[in-house]
UniProtKB/TrEMBL annotation:
<dbReference type="GO" id="GO:0016787">
    <property type="term" value="F:hydrolase activity"/>
</dbReference>
<dbReference type="InterPro" id="IPR001279">
    <property type="entry name" value="Metallo-B-lactamas"/>
</dbReference>
<protein>
    <submittedName>
        <fullName>MBL fold metallo-hydrolase</fullName>
    </submittedName>
</protein>
<keyword id="KW-0378">Hydrolase</keyword>
<feature type="domain" description="Metallo-beta-lactamase">
    <location>
        <begin position="7"/>
        <end position="209"/>
    </location>
</feature>
<dbReference type="Pfam" id="PF12706">
    <property type="entry name" value="Lactamase_B_2"/>
</dbReference>
<dbReference type="InterPro" id="IPR036866">
    <property type="entry name" value="RibonucZ/Hydroxyglut_hydro"/>
</dbReference>
<dbReference type="InterPro" id="IPR050114">
    <property type="entry name" value="UPF0173_UPF0282_UlaG_hydrolase"/>
</dbReference>
Amino acid sequence: MAAIQLLRHATLLLDLDDTTFLVDPMLSEPGEIPPIPNSPNDRENPLVDLPDVELSYDAVLVTHRHRDHFDDAAADQLPSDVPILCQPEEVDDFREDGFTDVRPVEGTVSFEGIEVTRTPARHGHGDLAEQMGPSSGYVLDGARTIYLAGDTVWYDAVPETIDAHAPDAVVVNAGAAQFVEGEPITMTPEDVGEVRGAVADDVPVIADHMEAINHCLATREDLAAAVDGVAIPEDGERIEL
């Protein structure tokens, strides 16, 4: 069994075999997070409600600790003993939040029989990518192989990861997140088109990370108009793989 349910932005419930991962939990109520600074607008985040979905999961998987991927509400609401799989650079931060079962993913770790491999990500272009700090993707390998690209733009490591792992589905963080200056720091519709062209026609490409945070400027409508063959779920929608 494999399925992905989009809650909001990059927050997912990912079912693989008999295990459910809560990915990048942003659990704040609308307007509880200040606008991302230096953005083209000053709307308070999140822009939309969480859907009415039961949060039942076995572990939490965090690509990086920016506020739109792990917020104060998640730190407050998640059980302190939940297993958290994360970047090695952020282990101490989770432990300082009071979590007692923090598992760094340096290369590959196993959780309930599922192999979780950390993959490269580049959160922007040039110097801005360095300023954004470390960000990761993950490949989860069970009965199906799922590639979560994370907050990254299209660059050589993305097709290399696809070639190395031959995923059965790819999840891309779209939305063309951008500041007033500089290039986008997450995938644009054009980037998503590159991912679509890098996998076989029967491999689903699922796009999230849109319409929930003030600096994500590309909408679902923009993406659908630009790229064919990409699944663009609504908040709360579940996609069976």
